[in-house]
Amino acid sequence: MPSPDRIWTAALVVIGDEILSGRTHDKNIAQVAGWLQVQGIRLMEVRVVPDIEVRIVQAVNALRTTHDYLFTTGGIGPTHDDISVDAVAAALGVPVVVHPEARRILEDYYATRGGVSEARLRMARTPEGADLIPNRMSGAPGIKIGNVHMLAGVPHIAAQMLDALTGTLEGGAPLLSETVGGFIKESEVADILREVEQAHPNCQIGSYPFFREGQVGANFVIRSTDANDLRSCVDSLCEALAEAGFDFTPGGI
Amino acid sequence: MPSPDRIWTAALVVIGDEILSGRTHDKNIAQVAGWLQVQGIRLMEVRVVPDIEVRIVQAVNALRTTHDYLFTTGGIGPTHDDISVDAVAAALGVPVVVHPEARRILEDYYATRGGVSEARLRMARTPEGADLIPNRMSGAPGIKIGNVHMLAGVPHIAAQMLDALTGTLEGGAPLLSETVGGFIKESEVADILREVEQAHPNCQIGSYPFFREGQVGANFVIRSTDANDLRSCVDSLCEALAEAGFDFTPGGI
Fold first, then answer.
1. Homologous superfamily of B8-165
2. Looking at this predicted complex, what is its ipTM?
3. Which of A125, A146, A150, B196 is paired with B71 by a 20 to 30 Å CA distance?
4. CA–CA min distance B61, chain A (Å)
């Protein structure tokens, strides 16, 4: 149920040496961010931390206490470098237990796939008191404990878990946005952007320059929780750009 | 000059609402991470923060004091939402000044491109005491003050600035890595990975599962600062996988 008068916030901890080494390009930040927008929850901070327990504990504790929701991605698989469950349990001050329902899910899933080994049973471990987040793709569930939601690192599987969570978290009015863009140097419209934003206190305008096909340009993203205010701000911006003689494309380029 | 006995560390602050809204997929984390690897500097943490000064200040101060180097990306352009210079100056407790050399660079660059406007002059502002990081692509320089290195948010321009910094930062022995991969369920080789890692104390093995063409698989990344130790660990892993009957590809898949 949306509570429009309150802003709901979230943070994300991305756990994994592979992101910090540059080997893997993270896809979960954008995925979690976009999903949260639709739930009416604002992603306020992301931290990417290595597979070192004390670092994960620090990040989890700094962020779970300052946001409505905390998400983590990565480190919940079957191998020795998957230490997120231990780290979150340590952060919360609870022991790690084998979750009976997770064990049953894994036993079912692996019944026709070679059986449950000790390594696979690692994926049934949760901090004590946790609920499970279903994962139709690979059996091993995500974990929800308090306001902490632990998702897989593999983007396809994380997406399944987000899907399972859709509609279960209380949020506020979604932040709406519209984009106007063009092959416009942002330095030439800086005054227009500032003035239009100042005239619409319930809206923010972000300017995102790019360099494409040998030309510079920018997209201007107008954001608001109120659809009417958003419309009015977009209209004012388009009028001001047209008056100053700029070519632009509603919807962005 | 590499100092092999000391580990040099860095952190990165990605500044930008566009990443946190999910609108833009960040490319700078992987880019900065890969570049740092080659410099022999380990990226230990990334924080993505919104365009809110106090949030940037907090992240900058938490990370610049705990790592050898801090990098920032984003928020150094000409528009009202570019507040990174003000935030870093506030974090360092120094005023913002117009940097004479940056002003000259911008005047030269814009001499044939419509002249320097007030908005464009915003890009000559730096925290007092800063040096510039050249940027051949768009004129506006990056900023280096103390151990803080401020790069553009546009990935092409950030790449130019990293290029200009290549070889100027003291680092240690680069972390070397090799990958072995296959359509192998990581849960089936968890014991092998753990045992091989334990037998090679100077190496770490990371396991990175994927789901591709309807099949699950994993890449195993072996990391070490010592080329001989790395070789020996890779050989042990390949022998153990072969002995257990797994198909794998050196170099990863």
1. MoaB/Mog-like domain (3.40.980.10)
2. 0.87
3. A150
4. 15
